[in-house]
Amino acid sequence: MAMLKTVDSKFFHAEIPYKPMGKYAHFLTVRVTESYPLFQTDGELNKARVRAGITDKTTISRLAMFKRKQSTPERLVGRELLRNYNLMTAEECEYNVNFAMNNPDCIIYGFAIGDSGSEKSKVVVDTAFSISAFDESHETFTLNAPYENGTMSKQGEVTSRINQQDHIKPQVFFPSIVTLKDPTEASFLYVFNNILRTRHYGAQTTRTGRVRNELVGVVFADGEIASNLRWTQAIYDQMKANNTLKIPDPLDEDDVMQAAKTTIEALMAEEFIVHTDFIGEQFAPLLDEVKALTGSEAGIKQVLQHADQDAKTYFGKYVEKPKKTAAKAG
Amino acid sequence: MTIIYRCTLELHDSLYYATREIGRLYETEPILHNYGLCYALGLVDSDRHATTVAEEDSYRYFCPEQVPKYEAHLTPLNQQGIYVTPARAVNHATVLNTWKYANNNYHVEMEKTQKNIPSFGRAKEIAPESQFESFILSQKPLALPRWVRLGKWASKASVEVKELSQIKQSEGEFVFPHPLNPLDVMFTHQVLSYDTVNMPPVSLIRNVQMRGHYYETEGLKIPARMSYRFGN
Questions:
Q1: CB of B99 within 8 Å of any CB in chain A?
Q2: Measured at the alpha carbon of residue A76, what is the angle toward residues A74 and A78, in degrees to the nearest 5?
Q3: Which of B52, B57, B61 is best to mutate for the A interface (most A CBs within 10 A)?
Q4: Which residues contact A188 (CB under 8 A, 6 or more apart)?
Q5: Tens of pLDDT along A122-177?
Q6: Which of A99, A118, A163 to mutate: most B Cβ within 10 Å?
């Protein structure tokens, strides 16, 4: 029944377990901005002061892409597909309002409902940091709201509808690892597909948040691997050593991807956990297979149906049952 | 023979948990509670450390109710002779972040809340690259993970463990500057004076002057015979 041929089924559970079993799938992504996204919460762009590299210990300000700003759009893409293929309706399950608890989104990404309990997320995303410093990665825009005639004045009166806003530049790179705990084959494909398909992050109202996810590889392991920050710092060091940090010009994507690949291989070699890496050439056949599967209607339907089946089985066994016994006891 | 490890945690993401809630401001105290640390370091309900708990108390992805089970979870650590002290910040910085609950309107109407879920607030978080330090006392050598997750947002932190050498054991009056869990030392030591750090579920104490057994190493006197105790 396996859908994937390039990955050994031993990396997956036959069904979603009720407690952590120590199987991890880490998706290694580099998120590339393609227009002018906005990641802000306090009226200014999110940033963090951290060391530039592991060897280069100077402190710089980096743009930060908080975890929820990454996972929410990816969840919403998955939910859209579930509705499109009639596995869920908008009435049954509404994001952050009324979770149905029995579909792949709720079970894989988790939920918390006051008195109905909570499901811990099996997907963990960490804050991602830009490789280049904040100063080189943002621009201040003046926004205005012109009149019908396209100008800012009407019959001699000048409008005050004008504002300034910082935006993240295109071609800014955010290395980010998405960790999926205890995957089944279908939940692995469900999350994989969400990462591949999500195109917009950050403030939706601006319509400028285009971001492309480039996958560097997938690592199957029995534990956690290096952090986004460590990986970003390693890439910075290597690009500095290779003279490919062309400040103030944007970084070259080929240089970034090359550095991302070699540094994660070096970081993985330092870990003392059991891991199987699909990086670079080893990753290409897996990526092709997943793209072929999720790119056809029959394929994506199959993935979603399997994921839905996994979620329903889990719900029936572990979520619905404790509630019934609790009701009996009460 | 007791082994003492100095455990250094470095944050790789901003860390948040609510030590204090002041209206809509949620503040993170730069101290890691020792209960939380036991979970983060993977010492609770673990085959490897022989601390497995009863099936009905085991950690699950689905939690039908939000009731902590510290006593059931931490007592097996006592049986294995494992004890973790709360961690103090070696160096840290804080950041203020506003968080919202999905809604991204440009005006917010205050509605009467039906559920106990705040819609937005400001969180004082501990910045990435801050460092914490705690001591782990164990009867057996421990293999600890290199990466752990801490706090409400499950923020990644790196773990470095160094075994302390030339440990001398003695008894008497001494001062321990780092934070301690009062419940875990007050039954074995006479606690003379201390500063309190208010935090749930058990407030901690530091700069503790006390009398009793201690281990002396690297210029520090670390209380001996600590174990998890629960008042009942």
A1: yes
A2: 75
A3: B61
A4: A12, A25, A180
A5: 999 999 999 999 999 999 988 788 888 888 888 888 877 788 888 899 999 999 99
A6: A118
Can you read off the two tokens belonging to residue A24? Answer: 């991890």
CB contact under 8 A, A227 and B158: yes
B32: amino acid identity, one letter: L
Task: Please write the tens of the pLDDT for every residue from B151-184.
Answer: 988 999 999 999 999 999 999 999 999 999 999 9
Chain B contacts in chain A segment 30-89 (CB below 8 A): 41-42, 46, 48-51, 66-68, 72
- Count, residues in chain B: 232
A221 close contact with B: CB closer than 8 A: no
**Chain B contact for A223 (CB, 8 A cutoff):** yes
Torsion angle of the four alpha carbons A100, A102, A107, A112, in this order, in degrees rounded to the nearest 10: 30
